[in-house]
UniProtKB/TrEMBL annotation:
PANTHER family: INTEGRAL MEMBRANE EFFLUX PROTEIN-RELATED (PTHR23513), MAJOR FACILITATOR SUPERFAMILY ASSOCIATED DOMAIN-CONTAINING PROTEIN (PTHR23513:SF6). Its main location: membrane. InterPro entries: MFS (IPR011701), MFS_dom (IPR020846), MFS_trans_sf (IPR036259). GO terms for cellular component: plasma membrane. It is found in: Cell membrane. This is MFS transporter, DHA3 family, multidrug efflux protein. Keywords: Cell membrane, Membrane, Transmembrane, Transmembrane helix. It holds the Pfam family MFS_1.
Amino acid sequence: MSGQEAAVDTSLRTPEERSRTFAGILINTALANVTTSYLWFALTFWVYLETRNVIATGVVGGAYMLLIALSSISFGTFVDRYRKLAIMRFAAAFTLVMFVLSGVMFLLTPGAGLLDLGQPWFWIFTLIILVGAVVENLRNVALSTTVTILIEPDRRANANGMVGMVQGLAFIVTSVFSGLSVGLLGMGWTIAIAVVLTALAFLHLLTLRLPEETHVAASDAQGGFDLRGSIAAVLAVAGLFALIIFSTFNNFIGGVYMALMDPYGLEMFPVELWGLFLALGSTGFIVGGALIGKFGLGANPLRTLLIAVAIMGALGALFAIREWAWLYVAGIWLYLALVPCVEAAEQTVIQRVVPLNKQGRVFGFAMAFESAAAPITAFLIAPLAQFWIIPYARSSEGAAQLAPLLGEGTSRGIALVFLVAGIVMIVAAVLAFLTPVYRRVSASYAQAPAEETAGA
């Protein structure tokens, strides 16, 4: 009997009852994600509006992804060692404490000192919020394993699509209210709202139950940072490491957007309108997740993933090729409609080919590896854009040289970065299709159901 079979008893409740429990966990996670993203977006908007410095937003964004990369191995280790619901409750409580501390610091530190990038107070304040937001991601690792526990195998791709749809809904709410909150209420009230919502999510989480996990699956996970076990769990499945590489393609260009997408939008729109237009574009996230929830990912999720990555590269290259508001918003809509496809494809493959007692570490390793790509590009691109690319594009000579390709406007330097990054994404996805590893991973996924049946 496998560790998963010994630790999970799905006979305790019907599939419909388990689906309702999953819906409750999903809604609770959505509220937590809304709150975390609300404060995170607000911090990014606030920093840029007060400093007008893309290095600051690039460092803040890159630091967030870097912290996720450094902590995800630990997240996966804890998920494998402890009950999934207990992990979610711990993450919610920790985030609540961090957000309260950020509010106290905001009240006690003079505004000028808090916004002085040369003083430690700005970085301490930012770090407190970032740590709270990063630990909240521990819930997302646990959420992926609850799909395995609660959802029937043939419906997991659809469930992963619903996860993407809910995350898109959170992104929309965040986009609207973060801009309005910073523009109309200020950062202080924004922190207060985040604290209240985090407390509500924690209290609701205390009411949920997960009886199917009768006990923690027997696992070889050790300590709080089982890097060796994480690597072994990934390498145990042929081609799984390559799947993580494929998913990292998406994060490469994500680092560019992290550093420059908000500055581009804030140059084009007032902060309140930028939040609204970003929310409009983000409805693509919901549509993409809903389509996966309805139709799944096809017979080969990996093929679907690579096609989506190539299309995302084309969108990233073209949605700022002219400084037109409708083109930018439409490009964001289409780009975000494909994000749930990429994420759900990876999750679906892992949930099928990796045993439950190793899934936490595999998901954590994947999060660490993929998250590390974004800070590298964010830290690299932000200074290049601030000191070289943007000044060049705004000079008379640079503007004249870029005009035939990128048109005219104040943000042509950012558009140039988007164009180059998108082309690189397309090339990477096309090359991945040609590798033997792609065929090997596809075969592993196709053979998994037959092997499970034979084992039973």
